[in-house]
Amino acid sequence: MNTDSSDQQFNVTDATENSAEVDAARTIATPDEVEAYRGLLTGTDWPTLAHAYGSAAEAPKMLAALLDPDQSVRTKALDYLHNTLHHQNTLYEATVPAALYVAAIVSDPRTTRTVDNNRHSFPDCMRAELLRWVASVANEVTDEAEALSHRYGFPLDDYPPAGGIQRIRPLLFSASLPYTKDTNRHVREAALTACIPLLDDPRLLHHHRQPLVPLVREVLGTSELWQHRERAIDALDAWGEDSSGLAGQRNPFLFCDSDLSADGSSVWFAGPNSAEGNSEEPPF
Protein backbone atom coordinates (compact mmCIF):
# COMPACT_ATOMS: atom_id res chain seq x y z
CA MET A 1 0.00 0.00 0.00
CA ASN A 2 1.31 3.40 -0.90
CA THR A 3 0.70 5.81 1.98
CA ASP A 4 2.18 8.79 0.18
CA SER A 5 -0.66 11.08 -0.79
CA SER A 6 0.83 14.21 -2.28
CA ASP A 7 -2.36 15.01 -4.18
CA GLN A 8 -4.62 14.57 -1.16
CA GLN A 9 -3.35 16.59 1.80
CA PHE A 10 -5.48 16.77 4.92
CA ASN A 11 -5.10 18.12 8.40
CA VAL A 12 -7.00 16.75 11.36
CA THR A 13 -9.58 19.53 11.29
CA ASP A 14 -10.39 18.91 7.62
CA ALA A 15 -10.68 15.19 8.18
CA THR A 16 -13.06 15.29 11.12
CA GLU A 17 -15.21 18.02 9.62
CA ASN A 18 -15.47 16.25 6.27
CA SER A 19 -16.41 12.97 7.91
CA ALA A 20 -19.23 14.67 9.77
CA GLU A 21 -21.01 15.09 6.46
CA VAL A 22 -21.37 11.35 5.82
CA ASP A 23 -24.88 10.56 4.61
CA ALA A 24 -26.76 8.94 7.51
CA ALA A 25 -28.53 6.51 5.19
CA ARG A 26 -25.27 5.44 3.58
CA THR A 27 -22.69 5.54 6.40
CA ILE A 28 -20.30 3.34 4.40
CA ALA A 29 -17.06 4.96 3.28
CA THR A 30 -16.37 4.97 -0.44
CA PRO A 31 -13.01 3.78 -1.83
CA ASP A 32 -12.05 7.41 -2.46
CA GLU A 33 -12.78 8.30 1.16
CA VAL A 34 -10.71 5.39 2.43
CA GLU A 35 -7.77 6.36 0.24
CA ALA A 36 -8.11 9.98 1.33
CA TYR A 37 -7.82 9.06 4.98
CA ARG A 38 -4.69 7.07 4.26
CA GLY A 39 -3.32 10.48 3.29
CA LEU A 40 -3.57 11.48 6.93
CA LEU A 41 -0.30 9.69 7.54
CA THR A 42 1.62 12.22 5.46
CA GLY A 43 -0.90 15.05 5.26
CA THR A 44 -1.52 15.63 8.97
CA ASP A 45 0.67 18.05 10.91
CA TRP A 46 1.43 15.46 13.58
CA PRO A 47 4.06 17.48 15.51
CA THR A 48 1.36 19.99 16.46
CA LEU A 49 -0.91 17.28 17.89
CA ALA A 50 -0.59 15.86 21.39
CA HIS A 51 -0.70 12.32 22.76
CA ALA A 52 -0.03 10.95 26.25
CA TYR A 53 3.62 11.99 26.24
CA GLY A 54 3.66 15.23 24.28
CA SER A 55 4.07 15.86 20.58
CA ALA A 56 2.93 13.14 18.16
CA ALA A 57 5.77 13.86 15.72
CA GLU A 58 6.73 10.17 15.60
CA ALA A 59 3.17 9.01 14.85
CA PRO A 60 3.53 8.56 11.05
CA LYS A 61 6.47 6.20 11.47
CA MET A 62 4.79 4.24 14.25
CA LEU A 63 1.45 3.97 12.47
CA ALA A 64 3.09 2.85 9.24
CA ALA A 65 4.80 0.12 11.28
CA LEU A 66 1.42 -1.53 11.89
CA LEU A 67 1.90 -3.07 8.44
CA ASP A 68 5.60 -3.87 8.81
CA PRO A 69 6.80 -7.34 7.65
CA ASP A 70 8.52 -7.88 11.02
CA GLN A 71 6.15 -9.22 13.69
CA SER A 72 8.04 -7.62 16.56
CA VAL A 73 7.86 -4.23 14.81
CA ARG A 74 4.12 -4.64 14.25
CA THR A 75 3.60 -5.57 17.87
CA LYS A 76 5.54 -2.51 19.05
CA ALA A 77 3.36 -0.33 16.81
CA LEU A 78 0.23 -1.90 18.30
CA ASP A 79 1.54 -1.16 21.78
CA TYR A 80 2.04 2.45 20.65
CA LEU A 81 -1.63 2.64 19.69
CA HIS A 82 -2.70 1.48 23.15
CA ASN A 83 -0.14 3.08 25.42
CA THR A 84 0.65 6.36 23.69
CA LEU A 85 -2.23 7.37 21.42
CA HIS A 86 -4.92 5.97 23.75
CA HIS A 87 -3.13 5.71 27.09
CA GLN A 88 -5.46 4.52 29.88
CA ASN A 89 -8.43 4.94 27.52
CA THR A 90 -7.84 8.67 27.20
CA LEU A 91 -8.56 10.41 23.91
CA TYR A 92 -5.91 12.85 22.69
CA GLU A 93 -5.66 15.19 19.72
CA ALA A 94 -3.60 12.60 17.86
CA THR A 95 -6.12 9.83 18.58
CA VAL A 96 -8.56 11.21 16.00
CA PRO A 97 -6.39 11.05 12.85
CA ALA A 98 -4.88 7.82 14.14
CA ALA A 99 -8.37 6.31 14.31
CA LEU A 100 -9.06 7.42 10.75
CA TYR A 101 -5.83 5.83 9.60
CA VAL A 102 -6.62 2.58 11.41
CA ALA A 103 -10.05 2.54 9.76
CA ALA A 104 -8.40 3.03 6.37
CA ILE A 105 -5.89 0.18 6.70
CA VAL A 106 -8.02 -2.45 8.44
CA SER A 107 -9.00 -3.92 5.06
CA ASP A 108 -5.36 -4.15 3.93
CA PRO A 109 -4.40 -7.84 3.43
CA ARG A 110 -1.28 -7.24 5.51
CA THR A 111 -3.45 -6.89 8.62
CA THR A 112 -3.97 -10.66 8.51
CA ARG A 113 -0.39 -11.02 9.77
CA THR A 114 0.04 -12.07 13.37
CA VAL A 115 1.20 -10.04 16.37
CA ASP A 116 2.96 -11.15 19.53
CA ASN A 117 0.86 -12.03 22.53
CA ASN A 118 0.98 -9.36 25.24
CA ARG A 119 -1.39 -7.75 27.71
CA HIS A 120 -3.27 -6.05 24.88
CA SER A 121 -3.46 -8.83 22.33
CA PHE A 122 -4.17 -12.41 21.42
CA PRO A 123 -1.41 -14.23 19.52
CA ASP A 124 -3.62 -13.47 16.55
CA CYS A 125 -3.84 -11.21 13.51
CA MET A 126 -3.38 -7.46 13.44
CA ARG A 127 -6.86 -6.96 11.97
CA ALA A 128 -8.52 -8.26 15.13
CA GLU A 129 -6.26 -6.07 17.27
CA LEU A 130 -7.02 -2.93 15.25
CA LEU A 131 -10.74 -3.57 15.59
CA ARG A 132 -10.34 -4.03 19.34
CA TRP A 133 -8.55 -0.69 19.48
CA VAL A 134 -11.41 0.95 17.56
CA ALA A 135 -13.79 -0.56 20.12
CA SER A 136 -11.79 0.92 22.98
CA VAL A 137 -11.74 4.37 21.37
CA ALA A 138 -15.45 4.21 20.56
CA ASN A 139 -16.28 3.32 24.14
CA GLU A 140 -15.03 6.70 25.30
CA VAL A 141 -17.80 8.58 23.47
CA THR A 142 -20.84 6.37 24.07
CA ASP A 143 -24.02 7.67 25.66
CA GLU A 144 -22.93 6.05 28.91
CA ALA A 145 -19.50 7.70 28.77
CA GLU A 146 -21.11 11.04 28.01
CA ALA A 147 -23.47 10.76 30.99
CA LEU A 148 -20.57 9.81 33.26
CA SER A 149 -18.48 12.73 32.03
CA HIS A 150 -21.34 15.14 32.69
CA ARG A 151 -21.71 13.72 36.18
CA TYR A 152 -18.08 14.53 36.92
CA GLY A 153 -18.34 18.00 35.39
CA PHE A 154 -16.34 17.28 32.24
CA PRO A 155 -18.87 17.09 29.37
CA LEU A 156 -17.56 15.52 26.19
CA ASP A 157 -18.80 18.54 24.25
CA ASP A 158 -16.05 20.58 25.91
CA TYR A 159 -13.28 18.16 24.91
CA PRO A 160 -12.31 18.43 21.21
CA PRO A 161 -10.76 14.95 20.86
CA ALA A 162 -14.03 13.41 22.08
CA GLY A 163 -15.96 15.52 19.59
CA GLY A 164 -13.57 14.41 16.85
CA ILE A 165 -14.19 10.74 17.55
CA GLN A 166 -17.94 11.32 17.72
CA ARG A 167 -17.90 12.93 14.29
CA ILE A 168 -16.04 10.05 12.65
CA ARG A 169 -18.14 7.23 14.12
CA PRO A 170 -19.84 6.46 10.78
CA LEU A 171 -16.44 5.96 9.16
CA LEU A 172 -15.20 3.78 12.00
CA PHE A 173 -18.40 1.77 11.73
CA SER A 174 -18.03 1.32 7.98
CA ALA A 175 -14.53 -0.05 8.53
CA SER A 176 -15.69 -2.49 11.22
CA LEU A 177 -19.00 -3.74 9.83
CA PRO A 178 -17.68 -5.99 7.01
CA TYR A 179 -15.76 -8.08 9.54
CA THR A 180 -18.76 -8.96 11.71
CA LYS A 181 -19.10 -12.01 9.44
CA ASP A 182 -15.41 -12.76 9.01
CA THR A 183 -14.30 -16.38 8.93
CA ASN A 184 -11.77 -15.70 11.71
CA ARG A 185 -13.65 -15.91 15.01
CA HIS A 186 -11.37 -13.41 16.75
CA VAL A 187 -11.84 -10.87 13.96
CA ARG A 188 -15.60 -11.44 13.97
CA GLU A 189 -15.88 -10.88 17.71
CA ALA A 190 -13.58 -7.85 17.62
CA ALA A 191 -15.64 -6.26 14.84
CA LEU A 192 -18.83 -6.69 16.86
CA THR A 193 -17.24 -5.17 19.96
CA ALA A 194 -16.35 -2.16 17.80
CA CYS A 195 -19.78 -1.83 16.21
CA ILE A 196 -21.73 -1.94 19.48
CA PRO A 197 -20.46 1.36 20.98
CA LEU A 198 -20.41 3.05 17.57
CA LEU A 199 -24.15 2.39 17.27
CA ASP A 200 -24.81 5.02 19.92
CA ASP A 201 -24.38 7.47 17.04
CA PRO A 202 -27.91 8.51 15.98
CA ARG A 203 -26.79 8.46 12.34
CA LEU A 204 -26.19 4.72 12.66
CA LEU A 205 -28.55 3.10 15.14
CA HIS A 206 -31.78 3.31 13.12
CA HIS A 207 -30.22 1.75 10.02
CA HIS A 208 -27.74 -0.73 11.46
CA ARG A 209 -28.64 -1.82 14.99
CA GLN A 210 -31.38 -4.32 14.26
CA PRO A 211 -29.44 -6.34 11.66
CA LEU A 212 -26.61 -6.81 14.17
CA VAL A 213 -28.82 -8.19 16.95
CA PRO A 214 -28.58 -11.84 15.79
CA LEU A 215 -24.80 -11.62 15.41
CA VAL A 216 -24.36 -10.07 18.85
CA ARG A 217 -26.38 -12.88 20.34
CA GLU A 218 -24.94 -15.75 18.27
CA VAL A 219 -21.29 -14.68 18.09
CA LEU A 220 -20.49 -12.57 21.15
CA GLY A 221 -23.11 -14.33 23.25
CA THR A 222 -21.39 -17.69 22.71
CA SER A 223 -17.82 -16.47 22.95
CA GLU A 224 -15.24 -18.34 25.01
CA LEU A 225 -14.47 -15.00 26.65
CA TRP A 226 -16.70 -13.91 29.51
CA GLN A 227 -16.03 -10.25 28.64
CA HIS A 228 -17.56 -10.74 25.21
CA ARG A 229 -20.52 -12.67 26.56
CA GLU A 230 -21.25 -9.93 29.08
CA ARG A 231 -20.83 -7.34 26.33
CA ALA A 232 -23.51 -9.17 24.36
CA ILE A 233 -25.85 -9.31 27.35
CA ASP A 234 -25.37 -5.63 28.15
CA ALA A 235 -25.91 -4.57 24.54
CA LEU A 236 -29.01 -6.68 24.03
CA ASP A 237 -30.52 -5.49 27.31
CA ALA A 238 -29.80 -1.85 26.45
CA TRP A 239 -31.40 -2.32 23.02
CA GLY A 240 -34.52 -3.93 24.50
CA GLU A 241 -33.68 -7.31 22.95
CA ASP A 242 -33.83 -10.79 24.44
CA SER A 243 -30.64 -11.85 26.22
CA SER A 244 -32.11 -14.88 27.97
CA GLY A 245 -30.00 -18.01 27.88
CA LEU A 246 -26.70 -16.13 27.58
CA ALA A 247 -24.17 -16.70 30.36
CA GLY A 248 -21.78 -13.98 31.47
CA GLN A 249 -18.93 -14.40 33.92
CA ARG A 250 -19.52 -17.46 36.06
CA ASN A 251 -17.87 -15.94 39.12
CA PRO A 252 -18.06 -12.12 39.28
CA PHE A 253 -15.20 -12.05 41.78
CA LEU A 254 -12.79 -13.71 39.36
CA PHE A 255 -11.30 -10.63 37.74
CA CYS A 256 -7.58 -11.03 37.32
CA ASP A 257 -4.84 -10.36 34.82
CA SER A 258 -4.61 -14.02 33.83
CA ASP A 259 -8.23 -13.99 32.68
CA LEU A 260 -7.79 -10.71 30.90
CA SER A 261 -4.68 -11.81 29.07
CA ALA A 262 -6.72 -14.45 27.28
CA ASP A 263 -9.00 -11.68 26.09
CA GLY A 264 -6.22 -9.41 24.97
CA SER A 265 -7.34 -6.60 27.23
CA SER A 266 -5.66 -4.48 29.81
CA VAL A 267 -7.37 -3.81 33.14
CA TRP A 268 -8.86 -0.62 31.73
CA PHE A 269 -9.66 -1.89 28.24
CA ALA A 270 -12.94 -0.68 26.71
CA GLY A 271 -14.64 0.56 29.86
CA PRO A 272 -16.55 3.82 30.21
CA ASN A 273 -14.22 6.72 30.84
CA SER A 274 -13.96 8.83 33.95
CA ALA A 275 -12.81 12.42 34.09
CA GLU A 276 -9.21 11.20 34.02
CA GLY A 277 -9.77 8.72 31.21
CA ASN A 278 -9.64 5.69 33.55
CA SER A 279 -12.41 3.16 33.94
CA GLU A 280 -14.07 2.10 37.17
CA GLU A 281 -15.86 -0.72 35.39
CA PRO A 282 -14.62 -4.13 34.19
CA PRO A 283 -13.72 -4.57 30.51
CA PHE A 284 -16.67 -4.64 28.11
Give a short synopsis of this structure.
This protein is mainly alpha-helical and 284 residues long.
What's the helix and strand layout?
Elements: H1 12-19, H2 31-38, H3 40-43, E1 50-51, E2 54-55, H4 59-64, H5 71-85, H6 95-105, H7 126-139, H8 143-151, H9 160-167, H10 169-176, H11 185-198, H12 202-218, H13 226-238, H14 257-263
Antiparallel strand pairs: 1-2
Mean pLDDT: 78
Percent helix range: 40-55%
State the total count of DSSP E strands. 2
Largest sheet: 2 strands, antiparallel
Describe the 3D structure:
This protein has 284 residues and is an all-alpha fold. 50% of the residues lie in helices and 1% in strands. It is built from 14 helices and 2 strands, in the order αααββααααααααααα. The chain has helices at residues 12-19, 31-38, 40-43, 59-64, 71-85, 95-105, 126-139, 143-151, 160-167, 169-176, 185-198, 202-218, 226-238, 257-263, and strands at 50-51, 54-55. Strands 1-2 form a two-stranded antiparallel ribbon. β1 and β2 form a beta hairpin. The longest helix is centred in the last third of the chain and has 17 residues, at 202-218. The radius of gyration is 17 Å and the shape is globular. The model is unreliable at 1-28 and 255-284 (pLDDT under 50).
Relevant terms:
284 residues, 14 helices, two-stranded antiparallel ribbon
